[in-house]
């Protein structure tokens, strides 16, 4: 029987990423049953896309959400990324509560900033992930049309099997 020790679930708070997480937990439970002394790691992985600033407007100043002081646009975007990352961690912590008492399954979360497909593939390689489970479409909207599907890119370039759910 095939057993998975490390399952990566790219998560974007969409309905399909919830379904992918449920599938991951089912597979993790089955993998842990086949080897009762083995812990299966399920990692919820959230990628905040980079907010690019045009060079020409780098001198625009805005009010800091934290201090109220006037800061450069680049600093304001750093604050936004930090706030998005904190909110993502809170959201992922709420999601893992549903499964926090599952025997022999370790739930982890990871939040990073970057291009979603690239970050998912890099993490899977670096962490030697056994399986990626993700939704076929998330909250991509127009960016999906412009940049292509994250799921498609991941499924074509991942270093491990990819299960797409819809």
List keywords for this structure.
166 residues, two-stranded antiparallel sheet, alpha/beta, Rossmann fold, 5-stranded parallel sheet, 42% helix
Please give the CATH architecture.
Answer: 3-Layer(aba) Sandwich
Strand content: 15-25%
CATH fold label: Rossmann fold
Strand order of the biggest β-sheet: 5-2-1-6-7
* Oligomeric category: single chain
Cα-to-Cα separation, first versus last residue: 25 Å
Domains, number: 1
pLDDT below 50 for ≥5 consecutive residues: which ranges? none
| Secondary structure: number of strands | 7
Within CATH, the superfamily carries the name HUPs
Shape: elongated
Would you list the SSEs in sequence order as H and E? EHEEEHEHEHHE
Helix content: 40-55%
How many strands, what sense, and barrel or not for the largest sheet?
A: 5 strands, parallel
- Cα Rg: 18 Å
